[in-house]
């Protein structure tokens, strides 16, 4: 070969290697979020239809549901702490190392929930152990999303950052489909068998997903942007201190910008399941509807992420939030109708709108922060928003419905008010689509 030919061949080999590595990174991010949402939807569904009967026996239906959703919230409280701890090490020593630890811890906690004895067997120790495992699960999840999103975004070329970062969210609908499908299958068992041992099977299967995820993640290389700025990062102060000192405004806006997406998640995939079943909708029909709604959400997430690379993150997110406002009251009416078909329409449209906001949300957060604190800053926003809006939404919604004597009007008013806050937060941020990623 001549020198120019050798150079061209070398460049082609580098490009091919880079494309292959990017595919591995995206697959790793996809699998991580799939496992995260598998665990999340699994726990949320079990909290709605199982845990009240297994771990909170002796309480009335309303109090049992409230207690079950309370354990869900306990895990969400741990998520920001996990985001801070994993973010600190991810911004100091690298993204890849912490992602292995977070995935392993996440899967082990979920598997152990499937092995947990009931309160009838060990008394009050059962709900106490459930809370401990839920907190461990939440702590691990707190580090997973930020690392998966950051490493995907930092491997991607500039014009595809939104789509690449969305892989940390794209696995979500896939995980939701797997979880909903698994619970739907075991729910076909007789009630006694389902509540005794059937519900445990999907939890135990989590360890299989984790094994696949760790195998893929082992071949992923460290983020090139992190390597470029690593020497500078090591000389700086703690990432968390720098985030609060220089980027507190971005943190606040990022927290409120996530309200629409996480609020819809808390209402559609958690609270509404319990509400619909208690109003006469069949349990199997509701779980089937959740499975198909996750497919709709997946398609909406892909489309909106790609669109955000063309028109920007803000226009897509604003359109999604406004559509949620318009659909809030119709959705609540459909959920409370007692019809599984009506619930299916409500959750399909609701999760489709959730996907519209979810698609650009990862890149939206990542572009608020420089590389040296991106893992910490984005994780703090995402996990803080998930704690405030998704973690407490089911309990808040249940309380508002109880306070209104069983009606949903008060819930609808509060929900729309929260969406207004989200809209203001998105409007107050700078568009990041065309910006360079600083060190």
TrEMBL record:
Localisation per UniProt entry: Cell membrane
Taxonomy, superkingdom: Bacteria
Ranges in a coiled coil: none
SUPFAM superfamilies: MFS general substrate transporter
Primary site of residence: membrane
All residue ranges annotated as the Major facilitator superfamily (MFS) profile domain in the record: 25-430
Topology in the lipid bilayer: Multi-pass membrane protein
TM helices/strands, residue ranges: 30-56, 62-86, 98-116, 122-142, 163-189, 201-220, 251-273, 285-304, 316-335, 341-368, 380-404, 410-429
Protein name in UniProt: MFS transporter
This protein's UniProt keywords: Cell membrane, Membrane, Transmembrane, Transmembrane helix, Transport
Keyword match Transit peptide: no
Alphabetized CDD domains for the sequence: MFS_ShiA_like
């Amino acid at each position: 070969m001549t020198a120019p030919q050798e150079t061209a061949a070398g460049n082609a080999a580098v490009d091919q290697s880079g494309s292959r590595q990017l595919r591995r990174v995206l697959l790793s991010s996809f699998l991580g979020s799939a496992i995260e949402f598998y665990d999340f939807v699994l726990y949320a569904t079990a909290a709605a239809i199982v845990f009240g009967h297994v771990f909170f026996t002796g309480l009335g239906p309303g109090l049992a549901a409230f207690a079950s959703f309370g354990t869900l919230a306990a895990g969400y409280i741990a998520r920001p702490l996990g985001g801070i701890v994993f973010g600190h090490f991810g911004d100091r020593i690298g993204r890849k190392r912490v992602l292995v630890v977070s995935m392993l811890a996440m899967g082990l906690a979920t598997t152990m929930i499937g092995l947990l004895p009931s309160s009838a067997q060990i008394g009050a120790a059962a709900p106490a152990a459930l809370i401990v495992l839920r907190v461990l699960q939440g702590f691990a999840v707190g580090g997973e999303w930020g690392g998966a999103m950051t490493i995907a975004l930092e491997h991607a070329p500039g014009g595809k950052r939104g789509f690449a970062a969305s892989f940390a969210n794209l696995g979500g609908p896939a995980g939701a489909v797997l979880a909903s499908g698994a619970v739907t299958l075991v729910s076909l068992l007789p009630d006694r068998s389902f509540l005794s041992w059937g519900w445990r099977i999907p939890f135990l299967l989590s360890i299989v997903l984790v094994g696949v995820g760790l195998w893929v993640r082992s071949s992923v290389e460290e983020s090139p942007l992190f390597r470029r700025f690593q020497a500078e990062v090591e000389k700086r102060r703690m990432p968390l201190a720098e985030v609060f000192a220089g980027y507190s405004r971005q943190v606040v806006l990022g927290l409120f910008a996530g309200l629409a997406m996480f609020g819809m998640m808390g209402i559609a995939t958690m609270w509404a399941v319990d509400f619909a079943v208690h109003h006469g909708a069949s349990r199997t029909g509701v779980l089937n509807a959740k499975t198909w709604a996750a497919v709709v959400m997946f398609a909406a997430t892909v489309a909106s992420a790609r669109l955000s690379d063309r028109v920007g993150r803000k226009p897509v997110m604003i359109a999604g939030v406004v559509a949620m406002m318009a659909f809030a009251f119709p959705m609540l009416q459909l959920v409370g109708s007692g019809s599984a078909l009506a619930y299916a329409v409500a959750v399909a449209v609701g999760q489709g709108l959730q996907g519209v906001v979810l698609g650009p949300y990862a890149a939206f957060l990542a572009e608020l922060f420089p590389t040296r604190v991106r893992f910490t800053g984005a994780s703090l926003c995402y996990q803080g928003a998930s704690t405030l809006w998704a973690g407490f939404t089911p309990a808040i919604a249940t309380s508002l419905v109880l306070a209104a004597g069983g009606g949903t009007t008060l819930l609808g008013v509060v929900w729309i008010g929260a969406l207004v806050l989200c809209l203001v937060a998105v409007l107050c941020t700078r568009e990041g689509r065309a910006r360079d990623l600083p060190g």
